[in-house]
Design goal:
The chain has 321 residues and is of the alpha/beta class. It has a domain at 99-277: 3-Layer(aba) Sandwich (Rossmann fold), CATH 3.40.50. 40% of the residues lie in helices and 21% in strands. It contains 11 helices and 13 strands. It has helices at residues 18-30, 79-94, 99-117, 136-143, 155-163, 197-206, 221-225, 233-236, 247-257, 286-305, 307-320, and strands at 35-36, 47-53, 59-65, 71-73, 75-76, 126-130, 147-152, 167-170, 182-188, 208-217, 243-244, 259-264, 269-274. It has a 7-stranded mixed β-sheet, sandwiched between helices. A 4-stranded antiparallel β-sheet has the order 2-3-4-11, with helices on one face. Strands 1-5 form a two-stranded antiparallel sheet. Bound molecules: zinc ion.
């Protein structure tokens, strides 16, 4: 492992203000012991460590599964540390925008999602978003005539969404009545935070109407290999993310729970539906997937240190300064 991925770093990869650095250090000093995670795709427990630090300088042990090649946190926070992180630290480190600013950006993104889903979107569709934030994405669907519902945990966001005339409820999917079904369920930038993605997706599927779809959006390693985050995993790693999907690993996870991809890109945005096919032996693909994943990580590192990677960073730094 190169020095730049080892913990502790002399400098965080992203410059932090004094307040943010103090918040991070206080969390690191007070969090409990990390607990080992098995692979979230194949459930085995052997990893090759490829990183120890995220972009803010948090301890972030990251590994590639020795069986299926999935890339994820290999030791994660316990329940109390997560409460500490999300109540005291998350907003200090990540929260730069007001609910109004977040909402505005979400509405714009929502219009893109409407376009992405348009071939499958029924008139008057019932739409649920899990982790809706302020509900801006739902607003775009509401403007198209859909009946929309959202769930989230942050009271600031919930209040803001409700003031915009949206049905935003506090909690996770259990805040929705078990009998309620939806034509479209949106899970955008949520799945990468989930420590148990299989039961999470299964619960969502229980609320899917016959013929309905789930829209899933996650950051992806394929996108980094195509120049996202300037080909740099230290721009990409953040301690709140548990798993780093590629198209291959997300497809395998979806197949495992009985979902098939209708359309997708490498970003990853994808629209999925329940598969009629029986789930076959997914383990047969693990060896090939692991080889692909190793090639993917190697290609990102090669591109980061290439002339192209260096030029991209210079242009971005100039543009941002
Ligand atoms: Zn695995």
């Amino acid at each position: 492992m190169l020095d730049r991925y080892c913990y502790p770093t002399k400098q965080p990869h992203f410059p932090l203000s004094f307040k943010k650095r103090a918040s991070r250090d206080e969390f690191e000093a007070n969090r409990g012991e990390l607990r080992a995670l098995n692979c979230l795709i194949c459930d085995h427990d052997h990893f090759n460590e490829i990183g120890q630090v995220d972009r803010y300088g948090f301890y972030y042990p990251t590994g590639i599964c020795q069986v299926c090649g999935n890339v994820q946190h290999i030791k994660y926070y316990n329940e109390q540390s997560l409460i500490l992180f999300y109540s005291n630290v998350f907003r200090d480190i990540y929260g730069r925008q007001t609910p109004a600013e977040i909402f505005e950006g979400q509405v714009e993104r929502g219009h893109q999602l409407v376009w992405f889903c348009t071939d499958y979107l029924k008139e008057d569709a019932a739409v649920l978003e899990i982790g809706t934030g302020c509900g801006g994405i739902l607003k775009a669907f509401q403007e198209k005539g859909c009946r929309v519902t959202g769930v989230d945990f942050d009271p600031r966001f919930i209040e803001y969404g409700q003031k915009q005339g949206l049905d935003v409820r506090k909690g996770d999917i259990s805040a929705v009545d078990s009998a309620e079904k939806f034509d479209l369920i949106i899970i955008s930038h949520v799945l990468e935070y989930i420590v148990e993605p299989v039961p999470f997706l299964q619960k969502a599927m229980d609320h899917l109407a016959v013929g309905g779809q789930i829209y899933i959006e996650v950051p992806s390693l394929d996108h980094v290999a195509e120049g996202g985050y300037n080909y740099d995993l230290l721009n990409y790693y953040q301690n709140a993310h548990v798993i780093h999907f590629s198209v291959a690993t997300l497809t395998t996870l979806l197949h495992k729970v009985g979902l098939k991809i209708l359309k997708n890109d490498n970003f990853i945005c994808c629209l999925v539906s329940k598969s009629e096919e029986e789930v076959k032996d997914i383990e047969a693909n693990f060896s090939d997937m692991r080889k692909k994943q190793i090639r993917l990580i190697d290609s990102i590192e090669k591109k980061r240190t290439s002339l192209l990677g260096r030029v991209c960073r210079k242009i971005k730094n100039k543009f941002m300064s």
